[in-house]
Write a structure and sequence with these properties.
A hairpin with a 2-residue loop joins β7 and β8. By secondary structure, the chain is mainly beta. It is globular, with a radius of gyration of 17 Å. The protein has four helices and 14 strands. Strands 3, 4, 6, 9, 10, 11, 12, 13 and 14 form a nine-stranded mixed β-sheet that branches. The structure holds 1H-imidazole-2-sulfonamide and zinc ion. The site of zinc ion (ZN) has 4 residues, from β6.
């Protein structure tokens, strides 16, 4: 039985097939800004990231959106809530909805954004593979960036969504010819919320240190709704 988002295979019944989905640190969550507390330790240990630019990355239609496989041994995400460990980029993907009124996984004070980009990293200091890291509470670090719909299109996102016509069906993949630099996906304001959570899709492993940027990036309606 394939998991999905319908009443018979959606989040409310995932725990039947994927026990971790019934756990105590499940994502996504609604970020209540009034109870979020600022942590001076986080300000002292700045979150830093370094990515490579890559071309010919493979993009996959996951059936729930697109996913770009981007294992980058030269990338580093560290500091902030990540302790002394270094995390490496594995893939990035997008969650979106039928309309730009909804689509993000996290919400902020009950408000959904048009979509949400996830940059998925794994702890290479402690673990030997992504799969192994996903079995541990500090195994993964995911950067979440909200999409806001506006008039200007995002050139980097355009490089990705311009290939979607070639992968109309679940399981199809193609290569993105353009050079992609993941740094360009991040907002200029680097304030973020962070909490200990899980993968937001089955198997919902409780292995993710979430880092959700406060500032959304702007994309056009076409760039964030599937047709
Ligand atoms: N959406 S997520 O980033 O929590 C994720 N990555 C892999 C599976 N699920
Ligand atoms: Zn995701």
């Amino acid at each position: 039985a394939e998991w999905g988002y319908s009443p018979t295979n959606g989040p409310d019944v995932w725990a039947r097939l994927f026990p971790q989905a019934g756990g105590a640190r499940q994502s996504p969550v609604d970020i209540c800004t009034s109870i979020a507390s600022s942590d001076s330790n986080l300000e002292m240990k700045k979150l830093t990231f370094a990515y490579e630019s890559q071309s010919d990355l493979r993009i996959l239609n996951t059936g729930h959106g697109w996913k770009v496989e981007a294992p980058q041994s030269g990338s580093r995400l560290e500091g902030g809530p990540l302790g002394e460990d270094i995390y490496q980029l594995e893939q990035f993907h997008c969650h979106w909805g039928e309309t730009s009124a909804e689509g993000s996984e996290h919400t902020v004070d009950g408000r959904a954004y048009a979509g949400e980009l996830h940059l998925v990293h794994w702890n290479t200091t402690k673990y030997q593979s992504f799969a192994e890291a996903a079995q541990h509470p500090d195994g993964l670090a995911v950067l979440g960036v909200f999409f806001d719909v506006g008039n200007e299109s995002n050139d980097e996102i355009e490089k990705i969504v311009s290939t979607l016509s070639e992968i109309k069906f679940k399981g199809q993949f193609t290569d993105i010819p353009d050079v992609i630099d993941p740094t360009t996906f991040l907002p200029s304001g680097l304030g973020y919320w962070t909490y200990l959570g899980s993968l937001t899709t089955p198997p919902c492993n409780e292995c993710v240190i979430w880092i959700v940027y406060k500032e959304p990036i702007t994309v056009t309606e076409e760039q964030v709704t599937y047709h």
